[in-house]
Prior knowledge:
globular
Amino acid sequence: AVKIAGLADTLAGAGPFTVFAPNNDAFAKIPTDDLDALLSKPEALEAVLLRHTVNKIILGKDIPQGSNRIKTIEGEEIEVFNDCGEITITSCEGKAKVIKTDIMASNGVIHIVDTVF
Protein backbone atom coordinates (compact mmCIF):
# COMPACT_ATOMS: atom_id res chain seq x y z
CA ALA A 1 0.00 0.00 0.00
CA VAL A 2 2.86 2.38 0.84
CA LYS A 3 4.43 1.77 -2.58
CA ILE A 4 1.11 2.18 -4.43
CA ALA A 5 0.51 5.51 -2.67
CA GLY A 6 4.01 6.71 -3.62
CA LEU A 7 5.04 7.09 0.02
CA ALA A 8 7.90 4.59 0.23
CA ASP A 9 10.60 7.23 -0.21
CA THR A 10 8.83 9.71 2.07
CA LEU A 11 8.46 7.25 4.94
CA ALA A 12 12.01 6.00 4.44
CA GLY A 13 13.24 9.59 4.83
CA ALA A 14 14.82 11.20 7.84
CA GLY A 15 11.59 11.56 9.82
CA PRO A 16 10.89 11.64 12.63
CA PHE A 17 7.64 9.70 12.20
CA THR A 18 5.11 7.86 14.28
CA VAL A 19 3.07 5.47 12.15
CA PHE A 20 -0.11 3.84 13.39
CA ALA A 21 0.22 0.94 10.95
CA PRO A 22 -2.77 -1.26 10.18
CA ASN A 23 -1.90 -4.95 10.11
CA ASN A 24 -3.09 -7.38 7.42
CA ASP A 25 -6.19 -8.25 9.47
CA ALA A 26 -7.10 -4.54 9.53
CA PHE A 27 -7.03 -4.38 5.73
CA ALA A 28 -9.01 -7.64 5.56
CA LYS A 29 -11.88 -5.91 7.41
CA ILE A 30 -12.39 -3.59 4.44
CA PRO A 31 -14.93 -4.98 1.94
CA THR A 32 -13.11 -6.30 -1.14
CA ASP A 33 -14.73 -3.84 -3.57
CA ASP A 34 -13.89 -0.89 -1.31
CA LEU A 35 -10.30 -2.06 -0.86
CA ASP A 36 -9.86 -2.59 -4.61
CA ALA A 37 -11.23 0.91 -5.26
CA LEU A 38 -8.87 2.40 -2.67
CA LEU A 39 -5.84 0.58 -4.08
CA SER A 40 -6.71 1.82 -7.58
CA LYS A 41 -6.63 5.48 -6.46
CA PRO A 42 -3.11 6.41 -5.27
CA GLU A 43 -4.19 9.88 -4.03
CA ALA A 44 -6.98 8.43 -1.87
CA LEU A 45 -4.68 5.73 -0.54
CA GLU A 46 -2.04 8.36 0.24
CA ALA A 47 -4.58 10.36 2.27
CA VAL A 48 -5.54 7.26 4.26
CA LEU A 49 -1.93 6.35 5.00
CA LEU A 50 -0.98 9.90 5.96
CA ARG A 51 -3.95 9.93 8.35
CA HIS A 52 -2.06 7.16 10.17
CA THR A 53 1.22 9.13 10.30
CA VAL A 54 2.48 11.87 12.62
CA ASN A 55 5.67 13.87 12.01
CA LYS A 56 7.15 13.35 15.47
CA ILE A 57 8.06 10.37 17.63
CA ILE A 58 5.37 9.36 20.12
CA LEU A 59 6.22 6.32 22.23
CA GLY A 60 3.35 4.39 23.76
CA LYS A 61 4.69 4.96 27.26
CA ASP A 62 4.73 8.71 26.64
CA ILE A 63 1.04 9.02 25.74
CA PRO A 64 -0.66 10.70 28.70
CA GLN A 65 -3.71 9.09 30.29
CA GLY A 66 -7.02 10.17 28.83
CA SER A 67 -7.78 11.95 25.59
CA ASN A 68 -4.99 13.51 23.52
CA ARG A 69 -5.39 15.36 20.20
CA ILE A 70 -2.60 14.82 17.67
CA LYS A 71 -2.34 16.34 14.18
CA THR A 72 -1.46 13.88 11.42
CA ILE A 73 0.61 14.60 8.33
CA GLU A 74 -2.64 14.43 6.36
CA GLY A 75 -3.86 17.37 8.46
CA GLU A 76 -6.56 15.74 10.56
CA GLU A 77 -6.51 15.89 14.34
CA ILE A 78 -6.98 12.36 15.64
CA GLU A 79 -7.82 11.43 19.20
CA VAL A 80 -5.31 9.15 20.88
CA PHE A 81 -6.91 7.82 24.04
CA ASN A 82 -4.87 6.06 26.71
CA ASP A 83 -6.86 4.07 29.26
CA CYS A 84 -4.28 2.55 31.62
CA GLY A 85 -2.07 1.48 28.74
CA GLU A 86 -4.89 0.45 26.36
CA ILE A 87 -4.56 2.89 23.48
CA THR A 88 -7.25 3.64 20.93
CA ILE A 89 -7.23 5.99 17.96
CA THR A 90 -10.32 7.81 16.68
CA SER A 91 -10.38 9.74 13.41
CA CYS A 92 -13.15 11.10 11.22
CA GLU A 93 -13.05 7.75 9.41
CA GLY A 94 -13.25 5.34 12.34
CA LYS A 95 -11.67 3.89 15.44
CA ALA A 96 -8.77 1.48 15.96
CA LYS A 97 -7.11 -0.25 18.87
CA VAL A 98 -3.33 -0.21 19.18
CA ILE A 99 -2.35 -3.86 19.52
CA LYS A 100 1.42 -3.47 19.62
CA THR A 101 3.43 -0.40 20.54
CA ASP A 102 6.92 0.95 20.17
CA ILE A 103 8.41 -0.91 17.22
CA MET A 104 11.45 1.26 16.71
CA ALA A 105 12.64 2.21 13.24
CA SER A 106 15.64 4.25 12.16
CA ASN A 107 13.42 7.29 11.59
CA GLY A 108 10.71 6.87 14.21
CA VAL A 109 8.32 4.43 15.78
CA ILE A 110 5.53 2.15 14.58
CA HIS A 111 2.41 1.17 16.51
CA ILE A 112 0.31 -1.66 15.03
CA VAL A 113 -3.45 -1.02 14.87
CA ASP A 114 -6.31 -3.44 14.28
CA THR A 115 -8.41 -1.25 11.95
CA VAL A 116 -7.82 1.15 9.06
CA PHE A 117 -9.16 4.52 10.20
